[in-house]
Write a structure and sequence with these properties.
The chain is globular, with a radius of gyration of 19 Å. Helix 4 packs antiparallel against helix 5 and helix 7 packs antiparallel against helix 8. The protein has 285 residues and is mainly alpha-helical. Helices cover 70% and strands 3% of the residues.
């Protein structure tokens, strides 16, 4: 049972590093038994990350100011984290909801595979995958990717409905962390939709200018990717916060998890407002 793993000393906040690595391996095996579809989706993207890293070293081409294979690498890592986290969180739903979980998992898996197919195809062609209507083919590929981004968002809405409707296994802080984390993840997804609406992620300058090393976030104008990134990774951060609080302050875990989620959401909103004002993050650090 996954919940038993969460409660084991192996995953206690004071566990040594060796135990933490052992816990990760055990967690991945448990995930594979609970949700093989999202487990394999994650492993596929681990393989794609290795491929993108190799191509990054071999292919010197630059797309919108960054090496061509940086975006495929970042998306591979992000999708791995998303698929494995979602599969892990949904494993706590009761048996009655597992049929819906299977459908959600397949919807997410197909959506992520299609998105990656477009991203890797466009990187190989030496052009950008997002907001690209410079030719009929580029427009079609971006449209296909947009359709599957929408499908993935709808699958996540369904997942959010399930975790609010059904009781989850686990301590109360963790349960609220799953619910609130999925909600904030959807907020991050909406911010991604704002970039699609604007057909660029930079506010106040064209895409592709100077950016933070490794991340590419604009250092001369607003960048919507920062709030989008933080919102999307609430899927990991808020359940982990709720789990930790359930161990450290069980009596107040629910209230503290709500408070942490509110602060996290406020940070996402502040970063969004900063970007929409055309101000780079570095100016505030």
């Amino acid at each position: 049972m996954k919940t038993a793993l969460l409660q084991a000393p192996l995953l206690s906040p004071t566990a040594p590093a060796e135990s933490a690595f052992a816990a990760i391996g055990t967690a991945l095996r448990v995930l594979h038994r609970a949700n093989p579809v999202l487990s394999w989706t994650g492993w596929l993207n681990v393989g794609l990350a290795v491929l993108a890293l190799a191509l990054l070293l071999l292919d010197p081409r630059v797309v919108t100011g960054a090496p061509a294979w940086v975006k495929p690498l970042k998306f591979s890592l992000s999708i791995t984290a998303f698929a494995w986290t979602l599969g892990w969180l949904l494993a706590d739903l009761p048996l009655a909801a597992q049929r819906a979980v299977q459908l959600i998992s397949w919807g997410v898996a197909v959506s992520m595979i299609m998105e990656q197919a477009v991203i890797f195809t466009q990187a190989a062609r030496g052009t950008t995958s997002h907001y690209n209507n410079t030719s009929a083919l580029n427009g079609v590929l971006f449209g296909v990717m947009g359709i599957f981004i929408l499908v993935n968002t709808l699958m996540t809405v369904w997942a959010l409905f399930l975790v609010w409707r059904h009781p989850l296994h686990g301590p109360v802080g963790y349960v609220w962390g799953v619910r609130l984390g999925l909600g904030l993840f959807l907020l991050g997804s909406v911010l991604g939709g704002m970039m699609i609406h604007r057909m660029q992620h930079t506010v106040g300058a064209p895409d592709g200018g100077p950016g933070l090393p490794g991340l590419g976030w604009s250092t001369r104008a607003g960048d919507l990717r920062i709030a989008h990134f933080l919102g999307m990774h609430a899927l990991q951060a808020i359940p982990l916060l709720g789990w930790a609080l359930s161990h450290w302050a069980p009596r107040w875990a629910a209230a503290l998890t709500w408070g942490g989620a509110a602060l996290y959401g406020g940070a996402v909103a502040a970063l969004f407002a900063l970007a929409m004002a055309g101000r780079p993050l570095w100016a505030t650090i």
